[in-house]
Amino acid sequence: MTPDASSRAAATPAPQETPEVSLELQVRLKTEDGQLLLLLPPETNIGESATAAASTWTELWQQLKVRLNAGERFWQANAEVQLMASDRLLDIRQLQEIAEALSEVELQLKRVHTSRRQTAVAAATVGYCVEQQPPVSSLNQAQAQKPQSLAEPLYLQMTVRSGVEIRHPGTVIVFGDVNPGGSVIAGGDILVWGRLRGIVHAGAGGNTKSLIMTLQMEPMVIRIAKYVARGPETSPTQFFPEVAYVTPQGIRIGRASDFDKTQLI
User: Fold this and answer.
1) Where are the domains of the chain?
2) Which CATH architecture has domain 149-265?
3) CB under 8 Å to 86, separation ≥6 — which residues?
4) Fewer Cβ close by (within 10 Å): the C or N end of the chain?
5) What is the pLDDT of residues 33-85, one digit of tens each?
6) What is the pLDDT of residues 110-169, one digit of tens each?
């Protein structure tokens, strides 16, 4: 080999491998158990690799638009979508923009799954069904087996309208009404500072010491742990703040002013 050829060979850069990007770090749209899911990548911490999830709303939005408009549409018109937001922090404006983007391709945003309280509040305020999951933990297996306390309370200043379902692993406090057809499912207590006329399930994980308290008790159905009771067929002439709790005989409803926690089973 001549010196010139040797120099040219040494100067030739080695081919670089294209880094693989995990599908878990991209916006995805898929069907699972008959449900159409829109999955967002998790939040990115400073210092993560360049292949990490989109760290800004602009990048996330661009991914979403490309995913919805690229390729063949495999969904039926007006199909309902469940947004799997993971630990993404989304505000009302961003949720509305996602809903508008889905509407442009004949999809309807129906339910939001999130581990962020702020996102849950924003989604409920807009009027979507909400399911808040506990945040994913990176603790080791031994720590994960320890009993965990309930999540922090979820405060909602809104009316839970017909067709809206709120799920939260802790206590839910609604500053407003729960209308017929609306439902609240909580791992802890449920407090409604308004009229309760929908469906509520406290202690959904099996906690029989959970309570349901409201200023006006007219529920369609109330559940505490495994116990179930239907609301009265006729409305009372007077209303008082009341509390529903479990006794050895089942669910009992009484005036909040007369309630004593020693009555709990």
Assistant:
1) 21-137, 149-265
2) 3 Solenoid (2.160)
3) 39, 40, 41, 42, 43, 114, 115
4) N
5) 888 999 998 885 544 444 444 468 888 889 999 888 876 778 888 899 999 99
6) 999 999 999 999 999 999 999 998 765 444 333 444 444 557 899 999 999 999 999 999
User: Is the CB of residue 245 less than 8 Å from the CB of residue 251?
Assistant: yes
Sign of CA dihedral 97, 101, 68, 116: positive
DSSP characters for 196-214? E-SEEEESTTS-TT--EEE
Residue 58 is classified by DSSP as H
Check if the beta carbon of residue 130 is closer than 8 Å to that of residue 158: no
Distance of CA 261 to the CA centre of its chain: 31
Angle (nearest 5°) at CA 254 between 196 and 169: 50
φ, ψ at 142 (rounded to 5°):
-65, -40
Tokens of 115: 């581990």
How far is residue 167's CA from residue 124's CA, in Å, rounded to a whole number?
10
Q: Would residue 181 be called left, alpha or beta, if left means φ above 0 and alpha means ψ between -120 and 50 degrees?
A: left
Contacts of 191 (CB under 8 A, 6+ apart): 171, 172, 173, 174, 211, 212, 213, 214
pTM beyond cutoff 0.70: yes
